[in-house]
Write a structure and sequence with these properties.
The protein is an alpha/beta fold and about 375 residues long. It has two domains: about 150 residues, Response regulator (Rossmann fold, 3-Layer(aba) Sandwich), CATH 3.40.50; about 190 residues, Rossmann fold (3-Layer(aba) Sandwich). It contains 13 helices and 14 strands. It has a seven-stranded parallel sheet with strand order 8-9-7-6-12-13-14, sandwiched between helices. The chain has a five-stranded parallel sheet with strand order 2-1-3-4-5, with helices on both faces. The protein has a two-stranded antiparallel sheet with strand order 10-11. Strand 13, helix 12 and strand 14 form a beta-alpha-beta unit. The longest helix is centred in the middle third of the chain and has 15 residues. It is elongated and about 60 Å long.
Length: about 375
Amino acid sequence: MGGGSGCVYPEKRVSGGELDRHSASLDRQEAEVIRALVVDDLRTAQRAIQEALEVDPEFRVVGFAVRGEEAVAEVMKLRPDVVLMDIRLPGGMDGFEAARRVLQEHSVPIVMVTASYDDEEMLLKRSLEAGALDVLPKPPLLLSRRHPEAALCFARQVKVLCRVRPTPRRRRVKPPRRSPASGSPIVAVASSTGGPSALSYILSELPPDFPAGVVVVQHMAKGFIEGLAASIDERCPLEVRVGEEGDEVAPGVVLFAPDGVHMAVDGRARVRLRDGPPLRAFRPSADILLSSVAEARGPRAVGVILTGMLDDGARGIKAIRDRGGRTIAQEASTCVVASMPQAAIALDAVDEVIPLERIAEELVRTVREVSDVSEDQAGPER
């Protein structure tokens, strides 16, 4: 799935020694305390979220709110670094509307939390539409004592999301679309669990004159990729939308693979959609997309593997590296689930392993470097 939780709240108790080892795996970068506001109408839920967050010493809960209107006021007063917002709140304003109101005035990462997690993809869609970055299941009370590894997982997910600084909900003016130069670079991205927030962060950090087209496979349930693309488009200086047959992969444009079909790029930098069966359970398949970009652009291809489960994209990014292109994997401690980057690393398919907050900067540098590759090396023109 796309942006949902990669954590499981287990039945097994974990010892203090194991907690120490899990704590050691958290991001060790020097940072100021992350100040969190918790919005929930139940005191037990407030305590549970606070305990799960503060198992990581970088977190400090600085306030609580019960109603949506109170949450908006507390954000303005406390200026937290992150807001954890329950979806169901008493009164006339639910968590989604409270998130919208907050983001009209203040750019702060908002993570929705809920005890009702049956329809994960619908909750994610509504959260993204409201401007929130993700939706996570509410941790149970005493999680940090009974199941500290799950509490650490929850805290790590929130910490990753804290790196995303949303823009206020006002649409940016997009630069005019540019026609691609012959053999211009293409960046191909694969992501799954935790991907929506990671993609939102990376794409919003790219400059308006980014000199490469971008194509993306994000694993999500059917019916939700359009909403994700529209949500990111509101934050991103580039044009972001779902790809269609024959679309040109041009600088300044980000194309997501649509539901239920494979997407590839041909040698003329055009999108080709294929019905075909799922490849190793995935349709769209990141392996198909990345392999096609490897063939189309050779050393002017750049592959990126982000957070996600299983191994889709590992073979495709290896094809990019084998053809002389450049490859990047998200560093494990900044992933919600690190299986996809680790699978690519295991195949010796990755040039650089980089934390989430540095990927956009590295993409700008790398794309400028590969732009200098001679045209006869840059792949076929068909």
